[in-house]
Amino acid sequence: MSSVALAEIGDKTQLLTLLLVARFGKPFLILLAITLATLVNHYFAALIGELVNQFLNPQMMRWMVAMGFLAMAVWVLFPDRDDGEIRGGHPFWTSLMVFFLAEIGDKTQIATVLLGAHYQHLTWVVLGSTLGIVLANAPMLWFGARLQPYLTSGWGRRLSALLFATLGVVTLMV
């Protein structure tokens, strides 16, 4: 959960969450859509990770997971691009589809693949990664607009990078 929440800090989906609530003004409905989109997306991500682990020995898997965390440390240092404006539609369905698509190939999805490969407990990985996304994005629904002028995404990206690098090094040492 914490790995995915960290990957979400300063991510494009946090900006997307702000845009969705600014556009539709229905935070609870958008939160439900984000939760469902993440559950489905991360189920498939964790399943892929679990399948990959069946074909790799434990030593190779440990190195792959560690390198994945170290790559995530570098990746989170680069800001995401704003992919544009959100147009009409029903708040729930628009939020569900846009968030699901935004998660494809995202840092949090890759982190979920790595966690699924490492832990091999699909249900817990999916629930933990979904909870991490919800916890990282829920405050954006209510407080994001007011806090945005005071927070810099650069600081959040640097902290995330440090924590992912630490996870990578610790994984290699264990």
From TrEMBL:
Coiled coil region boundaries: none
**Which InterPro entries does this one have?**
GDT1-like
> Which family does the record claim for this protein?
Belongs to the GDT1 family.
- Pfam families annotated for this entry? GDT1
MF GO annotations: metal ion transmembrane transporter activity
List, alphabetically, the PANTHER family matched: TRANSMEMBRANE PROTEIN 165, TRANSMEMBRANE PROTEIN HTP-1 RELATED
Membrane topology, as annotated? Multi-pass membrane protein
Q: Which organism is it from?
A: Edwardsiella tarda ATCC 23685
Identify this protein by name: GDT1 family protein
Localisation per UniProt entry: Membrane
Q: Which UniProt keywords apply?
A: Membrane, Transmembrane, Transmembrane helix
Membrane-spanning intervals of the chain: 28-48, 60-78, 122-143, 155-173
